[in-house]
Specification:
about 375 residues; about 5% strand; about 70% helix; globular; mainly alpha
Length: about 375
Amino acid sequence: MREMLAHADLDRYAGQFVWLELNYDSAQNRAFLTKYGASATPTFFVIDPLDGQVAATRTGAMSLLELTQFLDRGTSGVFAKRQTPADAALKRGDTLFTQKPEEAESAYREALRLAPAAWPRRDLAEASLVAALQATGQLQRCAEAAADKAAGMKRDSTFGRIVVAGLWCVNLGDPAPWSKVQGGRLEPLAKEALSLSTIVRDHRDELYRNLMYLSLARNDTVAAADWGSCWLDELDQIKPVDDDERSAVDIARVENIQVFGDPKRILPALIASEHAMPGNYNASLRVAQMESEAKNLDESIAACDRGLAREPGALGRAWLLETKADALEQKAHTKEARTVLEQALEAAQAIPNERSRENNIKKIKQALGEAAAGAQK
């Protein structure tokens, strides 16, 4: 997204927006992240300067067309003296989405109910409704709505977005008859989406990952390996133009192996990236994670220490220390692992985003509890 934003022709928006980029891991941004409920990256907001209300919001990557449509929608929400009832309801859903997704769901449904047949934002509202169902944990309804709506949608980036959300709802749910049925409906749509040039890179990655999960749910490791290989081959064809793109490709590589695969397949690329980005702690973290997966525990610990030396923020420090503690535990260095976990807990308590802070604290405390229980045996 950052590369696209840097080179996109957005001259027609000159004077309409003040552009602000906030680091998710910086403590000074905690108030903003808490107020607006930004719990995932990237999250985009158009904020009305008069009252601080959200006029439009979007989570996840966008194509250039989607970005311009998003900006137009935000402009309309701020400046339009009169909006159609459907547009007003859509704006209300966006305002509520990050903080009150249950109420956002109702607003999106209202937008669709009020909209005329030819409403140009119908597909967007459908995709937003599915995202709200996902955010509220209504997994079956999310998957059903995605399969129902995607089949008749224009084959563009919004189509890819709604298929991804539906697949996540299938794969996050416990095995059940409905998940098998809806997975079967969404799988051919995912394959179709991968054949389209309009699908943004982030959504392509998510499509591949979810197709791997669907295969594993059927105990079909051959298909999972095939999807993983196709995904990695596609990633290997990308020639990163900057560190942001290099990092995005490496994140996808790690996500691939975390589903199913051999970490040795991607370690050379990750190590090359760490050398290419000497100030990037995340590059060291990815190496550490995959060295640990490959049971190269000393190499994993060394990579964690390199990352920690790069002065990460609270979130990065917590992740690196957790990874180091896990490698130490695997080496049976239990006492040292516990000390490192306590350091990770201290770091996690300073994470700016409330949800991320709570999730990491919970995970680390659970690991500490398991370590204490193991020491008593």
